[in-house]
Design a protein that fits this description.
Structural class: alpha+beta
Number of helices: 12
Distance between the termini: 74 Å
Shape: flat
Number of domains: 4
Radius of gyration: 32 Å
Strand order of the largest sheet: 11-9-8-12-13
Helix content: 40-55%
Strand content: 15-25%
Number of strands: 13
Length: about 425
């Protein structure tokens, strides 16, 4: 019976794989080729052009090209490595993805510090850059589809073929399981059908249309595009790199604290003792080490004679317990050191005022049975206090997280040794 099930599974998988491969080959994106002669530009925006000339996918150049285009339309200014918007708020004359770029530029501004450095466009720790980019790509794709320049890779016909073949393959596999039970057959059908769809439609995306292919070829034949379109076409990698809409390096950040923009360097405590641990827990650990280590040492000195005056075996045993006794006292001494450091840490917290530069989950609740990490209970918080261009992040418990985001000014009371924040005051 097992052999029959295996053979049926192999045949079903082979049949579905043939159908899925045929559909994927038939829906591959055609690569546009430039025309022999130079052509004029068209009505498409730089972001849509970026989609067309990159295999119907949006690259990071699209955001940079959109910002350059906004400066040409006098919505923003780029000068000497800085940028700022000339208009704020919702503008009905802008497309949704253009508005997103303008809003992002406005969000990083600090009026008291002047125009923001271009590097400040990068997303910080608490920013959901993945969600921003998904929406940005979706808006560009929606416009390209509406103009007839792009279409979903799998249309209704392809989806019906894919799902129909997946259902047939899963049904064939389920029939062979009827010999076990009806429940096994039903479960086998659901699992096989779901697995087939996940594998078969994993390459879902966009593909060309005749109009889109013609527009892409036309743009590839433009010999002297404007800066925005040159960026969209990937011809100005230096400019694209200078207009970053990617995730920031958490170790090097731009701060406007103090009324001027400056770069700060941040180090982060490692995920090990004693960083981020509460004072109560540190004292409990110290007490445990002192109690167990010291108790073991005292017990061994009382039970065993530490003077080796017997035969060789007894001497060896004595030396062994001498070592255990010494180890116990060493553990107790370490516990005493931790207790002293923890008491000093608790009794003399440091007060720091500054601007929050980075917020990121540090430690999470975990359970041996969990397949996904649990919610964070401790966060990294990097603060620029204006005293130096180097700082070390603190540990912020989740119960104090409310209102702590990049750009706000706060005052904290924190324990220096464990780098744990115990109180947060928000500046008005």
């Amino acid at each position: 019976m097992i052999i029959i099930v295996l053979i049926a599974g192999v045949l079903a998988a082979a049949g579905f794989a043939w159908v899925a491969t045929s559909i994927n080959r038939a829906t591959r994106t055609n690569q546009p080729q430039p025309y022999p002669e130079p052509t004029l530009s068209g009505p498409e925006t730089p972001a849509v052009v970026n989609l067309l000339v990159n295999g119907w996918t949006v690259t990071s150049d699209a955001a940079a090209a959109t910002l350059v285009d906004l400066t040409a339309k006098e919505y923003a200014v780029i000068h000497d490595g800085t940028a700022h918007p000339l208009r704020t708020g919702v503008d009905l004359g802008l497309r949704p993805y253009e508005q997103m770029v303008l809003d992002r530029l406005a969000a990083v501004q600090q009026p008291a510090a002047g125009s923001a450095p271009l590097e400040a466009l990068r997303f910080r720790g608490s920013d959901d850059s993945a969600a921003w980019w998904k929406r940005f790509r979706d808006e560009i794709t929606f416009e390209a589809r509406a103009a007839g320049l792009s279409q979903p890779r799998y249309g209704k016909r392809e989806r019906r073929l894919m799902r129909g073949s997946a259902a047939i393959a899963a049904l064939l596999f389920a029939v062979t399981l009827l010999g076990y039970s009806l429940g096994a057959a039903a479960g086998g059908f659901v699992l096989a059908f779901g697995f087939a769809l996940v594998v078969g439609e994993r390459r879902e995306g966009e593909r060309d249309t005749p109009a889109g292919l013609a527009a892409a070829s036309r743009w590839l034949s433009v010999t002297d595009p404007s800066p925005a379109y040159a960026t969209a076409l990937g011809k100005t990698p230096e400019l694209s790199a200078a207009l970053p809409f990617s995730q920031a390096d958490r170790r090097t950040l731009w701060s406007s604290y103090g009324g001027y923009w400056h770069r700060i360097h941040v180090s982060y405590p490692p995920d090990k003792f004693p960083y981020g641990i509460s004072g109560v827990r540190l004292l409990w650990m110290a007490a445990l080490m002192i109690g167990l280590g010291g108790g073991a040492g005292v017990f061994l000195t009382r039970v065993f004679d530490l003077a080796p005056d017997a035969d060789a075996f007894s001497i060896g045993v004595t030396y062994f317990f001498d070592a255990l006794c010494l180890a116990g006292f060493v553990v107790a001494l370490f516990g005493l050191r931790i207790a002293v450091r923890a008491l000093l840490d608790i009794s003399a917290p440091e007060t720091v005022s500054g601007q929050v530069q980075w917020v990121e989950a540090w430690r999470r609740n975990t359970h041996p049975d969990d397949t996904e990490p649990g919610p964070p209970w401790l966060y990294y918080v990097a603060i620029d206090d204006g005293r130096t261009d180097r700082t070390t992040a603190w540990g912020l418990p989740d119960k104090l997280l409310a209102g702590v985001t990049e750009g706000v000014t706060i005052t904290i009371r924190a324990r220096t040794w464990s780098r744990r924040i115990i109180e947060v005051t928000h500046e008005q």
